[in-house]
Amino acid sequence: MIEIIFKKKINKNKMETLLELLKSWNVDAEVKESKENKRTTNSNFTLSKGMWKDFDIDANQLRKEAWKLRT
Q1: 59, 39, 40: which is closest to 49 by C-alpha?
Q2: pLDDT > 70 fraction of the chain, expressed in percent and rounded
Q3: Any idea what DSSP says for residue 53?
Q4: Which residues contact 10 (CB under 8 A, 6 or more apart)?
Q5: Helix (H) or strand (E) holding 15
Q6: b/e string for 13-27 if b means 16 or more Cβ within 10 A?
Q7: Could you give the angle at the alpha carbon of 42 between the alpha carbons of 6 and 61, nearest 5°?
């Protein structure tokens, strides 16, 4: 199986024309619409969140301590 993925939604008439062209070449084709996958990536900051798991401190406490250093 080979998949062709269109990045943008295609006009219905254009899709029908494309399917007719493929069928004229004896290519068995079908249209399946799917929801757009949103990719989520972890930033370096969120990856470092786990390093505090063994400490009895939460994010609010960390923020307070960090801002004290700047004032």
Answers
A1: 59
A2: 73
A3: T
A4: 18
A5: helix 12-24
A6: eeeeeeeeeeeeeee
A7: 145
The pLDDT of 7-26, averaged and rounded, is 91
Query: Tokens standing for 8?
Result: 């943008």
Could you give the CA distance from residue 45 to residue 62 in angstroms, rounded to a whole number?
Answer: 13
As a whole number, mean pLDDT of residues 1-27 equals 89
Residue-averaged pLDDT of the chain: 79
Distances (CA, A) of 10 to 34, 49, 54: 13, 42, 52
Q: Are 29 and 22 in contact (CB under 8 A)?
A: yes
For the entire predicted model, the pTM comes to 0.45
- In sequence order, the 6+-apart residues with CB closer than 8 A to the CB of 62 are 52
Selection from 42-46, 53-57, 59-63 with the highest mean pLDDT: 59-63
